[in-house]
Each structure stands twice: as structure tokens, then as C-alpha cells.
Amino acid sequence: MFVGHYAASFVAKSAEPEAPLWSYFTAAQLLDIGWSALIMAGVEKMHVDPALPGSVFDLYYMPWTHSLPGALLWSVAGALFFLWLLRLRSKAALLIGAVVFSHWILDLLVHRPDLLLWPGRAKVGFGLWNAPVLEEAIEMGLLAVCAAVWLPGHLRRGGSKWSGAALLALLAVMQSFVIAVPPSGGAIAIGLTVLGAYLVISLGAWMAERGTRVAAAS
After folding, report:
1. 137-182 tens-digit pLDDT
2. Could you tell me if 208 and 164 are in contact, meaning their C-beta atoms sit under 8 angstroms apart?
3. Which residues touch 151 (CB under 8 Å, ≥6 apart)?
4. Which residues pair with 115 in a beta bridge?
5. Can you give the three-state secondary structure of the chain, one letter per residue?
6. CB 176 within 8 A of CB 40
């Protein structure tokens, strides 16, 4: 799952508009931001297997970012970081933490069994990647429904239909690129590509909200 993770960001923004959308977008991919840094450092491990359906990533060692305890710790850290950075109220910070953790829940649906419930325990994953057409339909459908929930509040806060449409178009383009151009190369190249993609998307969220009343009630 790639852009489907941002579905949780749209729902959280609708529930608590105090936090900017870019912070919810960053939270949605915080586990993968950490993963990108750790695979480049050689702490977590993966390799690309073009024979795999759906995702070509064989994610055979990622206990620090994608284990259940690791995801919970990243969720707490994300909530506390944005609470401090943006001087948020507790509700907004808690929602950011929930968005961070939603990444693990959605990964559980699509990943092959590579998510540790606990160090030394069996790995889990329901494996929707093995049915890529179904996985893509679920991912894009989830994103579309949640974006539809977010859009009316975006308009009430002074955002334009065009900025909302541009953000959704960016997500669709990024997803299409991932499908059309499967990742390749070593850990450093993949890590930098992933980080760059998340930076572009978070920047898109920031631009979509420019001029809106971010702290207004939805």
C-alpha cells in the first residue's frame, strides 16, 4: 500500500482540523520514513524480487519500524513530536499518533507475512499484495471515500476545489508511477526515492492548505 495510507490523514483532518494536513500526511508514512532511513543505514534489511506480485519488496527484516511494538513506539513518538513542534492540543496529537499506527494496520492487510507481532514471534500479514488488482482497487477506493469526507471541510476552511483536486491528482499520479515503474536498485537508491516521494506529497498537502483557516472547526 502506498497512497492508501493517506486515507487515514483525510479522516483525521476532518475530525480535528487544528493540525495541518501536511502533519497528518507525514504521520501516515512515518513508519516508512523511518524504514527508509534504517535500510540506508543497513539496520533493517530488504531486497527487490521482480517475481513477487503486487510489491516487489521482500521485507525480511524490519523489527524497528514494522513490528507491532515498534509501530506503537513510533506512534507515541510522532504524537509527542508534533505536539511539541506545532503546539497542538492533546486531541490533535492523539489523532496524529493514531494516523501513525494506522500505517501498521493497513500494512497488515496487504503485506505478505513480514510484520512481527513481537521479537522472536511469527510474522503476520494477510497478503493482499498477492492479488494486486484487488489490492489496488481497495487502496484507491479507500482513498477516494476518505478524500470525499475531507473535501467539504477543506472548502469550508477557505480551500478551493482546485487545490483539493490538485492534491488528489498528485496522489493518483504518484500511485500510477509506482505501478508503472517498479522500484529497483540498492537500499540507498530505494530509500532516497521513497523519502523524496513522501516529501513531494507532504509538500503537496501543505500547498493545498495555503490560505485556509487551519484551526477552524470542520
Report:
1. 999 999 999 999 999 999 998 988 999 999 999 999 999 988 888 8
2. yes
3. 164
4. 124
5. CCHHHHHHHHHHHHHCCCCCHHHHHHHHCHHHHHHHHHHHHCCCEEEECCCCCCCCEEEEECCCCCCHHHHHHHHHHHHHHHHHHHCCCHHHHHHHHHHHHHHHHHHHHHCCCCEECCCCCCEECCCHHHCHHHHHHHHHHHHHHHHHHHHHHHHHCCCCHHHHHHHHHHHHHHHHHHHHCCCCCCHHHHHHHHHHHHHHHHHHHHHHCCCCCCCCCC
6. no
For the stretch 182-215, pLDDT in tens is: 887 899 999 999 999 999 999 999 999 987 765 5
Cell of 64: 524497528
Q: Give yes or no for a contact between 103 and 67, defined as CB atoms under 8 angstroms apart.
A: no
Residue 19 main-chain phi, psi, to 5 deg: -75, 140
Q: Which residues contact 22 (CB under 8 A, 6 or more apart)?
A: 202, 203, 205, 206, 209
Instruction: Report phi then psi at 57, rounded to 5.
Output: -80, 125
Question: CA-CA distance, 119 to 131, in Å (whole number)?
Answer: 28
CB 62 within 8 A of CB 35: yes
Question: What is this structure's pTM?
Answer: 0.94
C-alpha cell at 89: 492540543
